[in-house]
Amino acid sequence: MRTLKSVKNIFWGVAAQFIVLLLGFVSRKIFLDYLGYEVLGIQGLFQNIISLLNISDCGIGLAIICTLYKPLALDDRHLICSLMSFYEKIYHILAIFILTAGLLLLPFISKFVKDAAFSPSMLRVIFIIFVADIVISYLFSYKRSILLADQNGYVLSLCYALYNIGLMLAQIIIAVYFFNIILFFSLRLVFRIIENAVVSFTVNYKYPYIKEGFAEKLSPDLKKNIFDNTKALAFHYMGNYLTSGINNIVISAFIGLTAVGIYGNYSILIVAATGIISQFSNGITASFGNMIVQENKDKILDVFEIAFFINFVIYNMAGVTAFILITPFVRLWMGTSGVLPFTSVLTIVAAFYLSGLSQPLGAIRASAGIFQPDKYLHVFIAGLNVFLSVALVKTIGLPGVFVGSLICIFIKEISVLPHIVYKYLFEKTASGYFKLFICSVFSTIISFAVAFSICRTVHAANEFLGFAVKTVVCLSVPNIVVLILWRRTKYISAVFNVIRGLI
Question: From CA 83, how far away is CA 137, in angstroms rounded?
Fold first, then answer.
């Protein structure tokens, strides 16, 4: 049952991300042609600033999802109702806080923009729309948690896809026929309300007992556990944001909105690829949580290692493809003016690959609720990344922003996180993990060398045909290399066993 639910969540998650990705390619090109890089830059900048306000969540959502795994497994409806009621009150308070913080930030919003083509008053109106968008989401966030914890994340994936399809199509109409910037951004509110209404109706239908008055006051011990995890997660969220979420702010402040828009050509691809692939780790997170409640540590470790290997196979293919083809794709898609320098692209893709390999670790750590041990490290990493990004952008320009993030990812996710998971969950050293990780990276280096060598020999009649041939090479060669190098390991046979079991 766990496997089938994971597969269902992964399938619909990938399908939703893929649909949004395809429509995103078309819509971004149209937005660029009709609105320009300035508007795309504003969108990227304000999304980063809203992400900063969003860390006021402090991880309480994840903390309560972790707390829901056990009562859902035991069908303890009284405790489920109590947790949901508590979650609702907390998130309504957070919505008020975010609205207040956004209004306080409003007078200074133009300070984040260098050489903007829009008036400060227009920037403030657009920013208010972004603030209202996140506030509406917070009012309904508590209902999303039970779907995630109960391995029904596919419902949210479908809602996400429908929201983005409707929003992008409506924005295309506004951009092409009306050129009204305020109306263009205001559509986010309309479709956000519709999306949340659908989620709310679905939760009320699937879990009618939530509204039947079973909620009781949480015990002091349970509240203490939730708040202890939330305090630790606050450091995690801040560290994660300041490691990867300030790029647009730094670029806008030191280089300009046009550079934010050009970087957006790459970030939309990286975010889309991460979103599609992360459906694998998202799909198994709740299953890990259920397994941790019911299985022994050896069984959990075996499943985790297989999950890591499957994730590596995906990122091996994605990393090689991105290294070789992301710039040629952007050139075909947005033109030569939309291309970043090679050094910037190299660091962006390296961060995507290394961070991606760690996704199963993050998934199982979240399922187990292990947030305390490295909470202060995240504060250090956050400060280090801000310092490095600002210092390096002043000295080496745009690539400096991404080098700072890459260094912090290596420290936090590659060096420290494995020790924490293995010590506190599996109660053993992480030497086995690091051996697996190093072998994975080595396999990717070989895959890249072979694929790059083959791609250099491709000389097609036109650029599009050449790109298509190289795409086939990049998608097939990494998998062939993995089959050759890993053919005698337990992981290949385990993956085939999983596939046979699903068939």
Answer: 19
With a pLDDT cut of 90, the percent of the chain lying above it is 23
For 60, the token pair is: 């309480």
With residues binned 3-state (H G I as helix, E B as strand, rest as coil), the percentages for the chain, rounded to 5, are 90, 0, 10
Instruction: State how far the Cα of 399 lies from the Cα of 227, in Å rounded to an integer.
Output: 39
Nearest in space to 456 (alpha carbons), one of 473, 442, 433, 439: 473
Do the Cβ atoms of 275 and 460 come closer than 8 Å? no
Of the candidates 279, 277, 286, the one whose C-alpha atom is nearest the C-alpha of residue 367 is 286
C-alpha span between 270 and 251 (Å, rounded)? 17
Backbone angles phi, psi at 117, to 5 degrees: -85, -5
Residue 141: pLDDT over 80: no
- What is the rounded distance in angstroms from the CA atom of residue 6 to the CA atom of residue 495? 15
> d(Cα 3, Cα 16) in Å, to the nearest integer?
20
Number of Cβ within a 10 Å radius of residue 239: 25
For tokens 């790029």, the residue is 247
- Express each pLDDT in 342-380 by its tens digit: 899 999 999 999 999 988 888 788 777 777 787 778 778
Confidence (pTM): 0.72
Residue type, 308: F
Three-state SS letters, 267-294:
HHHHHHHHHHHHHHHHHHHHHHHHHHHH
Q: Which one-letter amino acid corresponds to residue 299? A: K
Q: Which DSSP helix (H) or strand (E) runs through 357?
A: helix 342-357
CA distance 503 to 19: 25
State the Cα–Cα distance between residues 15 and 184, nearest whole angstrom.
26
Q: Report pLDDT for 200.
A: 87
**Burial status of residue 308 (CB atoms within 10 A of its CB: 0-12, 13-18, 19 or more):** buried
**270 and 355 Cβ atoms separated by less than 8 Å:** no
CA 448 to chain centre: 25
CA angle (57 as vertex; 55, 58 as ends), nearest 5: 75
Terminal Cα-to-Cα distance of the chain (whole angstroms): 14
- How far is Cα of residue 284 from the mean position of the Cα atoms in its chain? 15
Cα(209)–Cα(79) distance, integer angstroms: 11
- Report the C-alpha dihedral over residues 64, 66, 69, 72, rounded to 10 degrees: 0
Residues 264-301: tens digit of each pLDDT: 889 888 888 887 777 665 655 555 655 665 667 778 88
Q: How far apart are CA 35 and CA 175, in angstroms?
A: 7
Q: Which value, in Å, is the radius of gyration of the alpha carbons in the chain?
A: 23
Q: Is 57 left (phi over 0), alpha (psi -120 to 50) or beta?
A: alpha
